[in-house]
Design brief:
The protein has about 140 residues and is α+β, with helices and mostly antiparallel strands. Helix content is about 40%, strand content about 20%. The chain is globular, with a radius of gyration of 14 Å. Bound molecules: inosine-5'-diphosphate and magnesium ion.
Length: about 140
């Protein structure tokens, strides 16, 4: 069993696809272990994406991430990190495989509907960034 950290980004929440994303998570046998609606401050978004702080899109990305509420989740299952990334699809929805969330719902390379941790270390950091010990199970 492995846990990963997932977000339905502000574009996904605004466009009303939370339910469709959750349905795919459940259909793919990932368990939702914790979930909440959050509205990040600019500082929170900058801390979350600190690994990208030198990238040209950092300012725009962090502004987007605090432009509205997000759904933050802890997902659990066998190989959850890789499986959730596979369900999301490539960062750029134009490169994402058919049937992936980004291919089906994203509108832009930045506004790509969902986030998923890319490794056990980032999953641990991202999970504890948003969920305290009492919120985790
Ligand atoms: P990932 O979300 O697929 O792991 P990362 O490379 O970690 O992709 O980038 C984090 C987020 O930054 C992406 O999900 C996307 O929202 C945004 N992003 C990545 N590359 C670009 C870009 O070239 N232009 C604008 N935004 C980007
Ligand atoms: Mg990433």
């Amino acid at each position: 069993m492995q846990q990963t950290f997932a977000i339905v980004k502000p574009d996904g929440v605004a466009r009303g696809v939370i339910g469709q994303v959750l349905a795919r998570i459940e259909a793919n046998n990932l368990k939702i272990k914790a979930m909440k609606l959050i509205h990040m401050t600019e500082k929170q978004a900058q801390g979350f994406y600190a690994v990208h702080k030198e990238r040209p899109f950092f300012k725009s990305l962090t502004a987007f991430m605090c432009s509205g509420p997000c759904v933050a989740m802890i997902l659990e299952g066998d190989d959850a990190i890789a499986r959730w990334r596979e369900m999301m699809g490539a960062t750029n929805f134009k490169d994402a495989a058919e049937g992936t969330i980004r291919r089906d719902f994203a509108t832009d390379i930045e506004r790509n509907v969902v986030h998923g941790s890319d490794a056990p270390e980032t999953a641990a950091f991202e999970t504890s960034y948003f969920f305290n010990a009492f919120e985790r199970v």
